[in-house]
Amino acid sequence: MPSNRRSKEASVKKITVRNIGKNKFDNQSRSCPVISISDRYSSGACIPGSKAGRNILYLDFFPGDHFENKELCITEEHAKQIREFILALPDDTTELLVNCGEGKIRSYTVCTVLHRMFDAIQMHDGVGQIDDYTYYNLRRWLGALEEQAQESV
């Protein structure tokens, strides 16, 4: 019986990545998987359908360009979790929502990295700002993970 999960070698090119703020979830996206980013001082997003089997990856980090304590910013472990989450999405997934508090820095940066690493299509609600610390580290860690995966094939 064929698996309903993406293989590690599978491309993620057909997923649309949508960046949204935590208060912008709508009923149209009830079944979309979500990468939800908060920090230790915020309550996180109220995600419709979160108790109905929706795939959600919860991450907790601050934007590195705006926070001095880099231990509380994105880590290599976050990069691993993001990669594993994407690779484990069902094959018929067409959209991935990425949210943070306002949907302007952390989620925008993660969407941008995913777009550049996996050729995903970006759709942003509003204008975003790249967090250089998050961007460069996430891209570096995801790149290293991809290289490791290719070497093991």
* CA-based shape: globular
Kindly state the number of beta strands: 5
N-to-C span: 22 Å
Helix content: 25-40%
Content of β-strand: 15-25%
**CATH arch. level architecture:** Alpha-Beta Complex
Structural class: alpha/beta
Topology-level CATH name: Protein-Tyrosine Phosphatase, Chain A
Per CATH, the superfamily is: Protein tyrosine phosphatase superfamily
The CATH class is Alpha Beta
The number of helical elements comes to: 3
Strand/helix succession: EEEHEHEH
Note poorly predicted spans. 1-11
- Rg is 15 Å
Q: Largest sheet, if any?
A: 5 strands, parallel
Descriptive report:
There is one protein chain. The chain is of the alpha/beta class. It has a single domain, classed as Protein-Tyrosine Phosphatase, Chain A (Alpha-Beta Complex), CATH 3.90.190.10. The protein is built from three helices and five strands, in the order E-E-E-H-E-H-E-H. Strands 3-2-4-1-5 form a five-stranded parallel β-sheet, covered by helices on one side. Helix 1 packs across helix 3 (132-151) and helix 2 (106-118) packs parallel to helix 3. The longest helix is centred in the last third of the chain and has 20 residues, at 132-151. 33% of the residues are buried. The model is unreliable at 1-11 (pLDDT under 50).
